[in-house]
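Researcher: Structure prediction, please.
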Amino acid sequence: MLQQRVEVKWCFQWEPLCLEDYEMTRGVERRLQPRVEIRWPVTVLTTQTTIEGEIHNVSPSGAFISCKVVPTLEGSFFIIIKPPERQTISVAGKAVWSTTLTSDESNSSLGVGVQFTNITPVDRKFLNQFVKIQINKNKSR
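Model: Predicted structure follows.
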C-alpha cells in the first residue's frame, strides 16, 4: 500500500511523517532521549535576572521548567538544578519553546522547554542513570 506523506513542523524542524501516523498522534516526539517526571527546584540565571522554578521532567539533554517568568528565547543561560540528596547540577542551556501553564489574576505559571548546551560528563552520567532507574521503576508497576 502506498502511504501518503505529509510535512509537519514541530520544534522548529520539518520532518516527513506518514499521514496515518500524524492523524493518530497529532504531533511528533522529537526527543532523542526519554524524559521522566520529577519535581526538583531549579534556579535559572540570565544576564538580566534570577528566576526560581521547578523542573517537571528531565532527560540527560533537557528539561521542562515551570516558573513565574520565562527566560528569553534568545541566547543561553545557566541553570542550577537541585536534586534531593545530591549536590547541585550546573548546566548551560537555551530555551527552545515556552507556554502558559496557568493564567489568572492572582497567579500565573509559565513553562519553558530547555535544551542543555553544556553539562559535565559526571552530571550527564548521573541524569542518564537516574532516568534509566525511573523508567525501570515505572515498567515494574
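Model: The beta strands are 5-10, 13-18, 36-45, 50-59, 62-67, 77-81, 89-103, 108-118.
Researcher: Thanks, that helps.
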